[in-house]
Input
Amino acid sequence: MKNHVRELYKCPKCNLAVEIASACGCEEPCMRCCGEKLVPVKANTVDAALEKHVPHVERVDDKLIVQIGSEPHPMTGAHHIVWIEVVGGAWSLRKYLTEDEKPCGEFKLCCSCKEKVKVRAYCNLHGLWEKEI
Output
């Protein structure tokens, strides 16, 4: 039995994105939307501009400062970063963005946090992007 917690799935018809919050015991999630089985969203697999989607991260003391893309990512109704997240072993911090915000965030970590973390961003058009630091 595989643990699917934190995996993202998307409806192939309406683009609804769903994240698994707890283990269900299934070999593979069997959720449906619009009569279709949801498909897994894999990080960094969409053919899109890397310079606008890959998180850039700077660690300053007990904070992570995250900027999405080395070039500014659009933040319009049609194309935007939905959220930015920092994921550690058993914890996560997430910031949801609105269209009038810049695609960046500041995340305060426990001062003793020295573990590797993943920084993830979800673009409504180009899916999930992540970087491990």
Q: What stands out?
A: The radius of gyration is 15 Å. The CA atoms of residues 10 and 68 lie 21 Å apart.
